[in-house]
Each structure stands twice: as C-alpha cells, then as structure tokens.
Amino acid sequence: QSALTQPRSVSGSPGQSVTISCTGTSSDVGGYDYVSWYQQHPGKAPKLMIYDVSKRPSGVPDRFSGSKSGNTASLTISGLQAEDEADYHCCSYAGNYIFAVFGGGTTLTVL
Amino acid sequence: EVQLVQSGAEVKKPGESLKISCKGSGYNFSKYWIAWVRQMPGKGLEWMGIIFPGDSDTRYSPSFQGQVTISADKSISTTFLQWRTLKASDSAMYYCARQGAVVAGYWFDPWGQGTLVTVSS
Q1: Do A48 and B106 touch (CB under 8 A)?
Q2: pLDDT for the residue A77
C-alpha cells in the first residue's frame, strides 16, 4: 500500500485561505468516506482536525473544512492565523487488513 | 479524560531488543482499536499496525509485518510495540493512537505523547 500523495509545502498570508490536497486510489481515499486530517506542531503529537472527510471534532475552529472528490481529499483552512502554521497529515481507511494509510505530510507556512 | 500515556525515551544499540508501552485511561480499554504509528526524523506518519485489546486481534502494515510485534494486556490497559533485533533505521518517534469510535471510527483520537527511540552504536 503506497502512501497518499500530499504537496510538500503550501503557504498563505494571514486572513487568506489555503487548500491541501491528498491523493490516493480507489482502494483507499476513493473507496471510503473515511479520510481524516491531523495537525502537528513541531515537537508535538498529531491532533485530529477532520474525520469522515468533513466532520470537525468539538473544539476545532470552523475555519477548518474537509472535502473529497474521487480519489482526492482536501483540507481547506480559511482566515489563516499564525497558529495554523504546522504540518498537516491526511489519512484514509484502506480496508480491514491495511486499515490505514497516511500521506507524506504538508508543511503550512503562514507568511 | 481519555488519555494515552507512553513510556519514556529509549537509547539502544543495534542488535538489542526493545519493548515500549502505551497505557490507556478514561475509557473502556478493551473496546477500541489502538494503532502504532512511526515518524522518522523530518518525515511523515507511517501506520505500522493496530490491535484490538479485547481479543488481541492484530493487523500489520506489510511494511512492518515481521519487523515488530504488537501486543496488549487488557488487565493493565496497556499495549506494547516490540522489536527483537533493533537496527539503526528503527530510530524514530513512535506514537500510539486510539480508534475514534467503537463503530466505524476510522480516525485516530487521542494520540499518545510519543516515545523517541534512538538506535546507535
């Protein structure tokens, strides 16, 4: 099972919106509505931001949203803030035996 | 509060064995899958495998099958990640993470704080 494909880095200015893509196959992203996204600040553990493609856990700002089309999922962060600067990892369910596959991670820089 | 607490950092030599742990609290430990995830320095997250503590049903990523052993002891609400023979390339941060929900909970929350493993001669 190959890793999902994410851009290495994205950037945006405060107040702007950015979108991070996550491309897989019909065996993972395209096959299930079970994509999740995690934010990771340097030296910290990952934190769940989006699950089941577009659901937000309580406490996550509504500036964070998720979507999916075919084999590609996306995380959009609107109204960028300095504290959004972090690494973002996507993850997809891939069946009963593989269970999960992650993307390579995207570094978001707030200019 | 639902929490996963991992054992402390380890420094080992190549060829040595190692077992690190992840203790859950604040929920019914037996009912949620727990995954182990590797993060090599400066790299992304890699799913290694997952265990259901209720019956120790375990699944491994093909990349890690045969390289590590995942186990659980539900009597002490703890899962383990074990190596028989460490290599320098096993140096990484290792996280445990709980399945998000008992039914169709295909996300991970919460995560442990991570265990840094350094393998060096």
Answers
A1: no
A2: 98
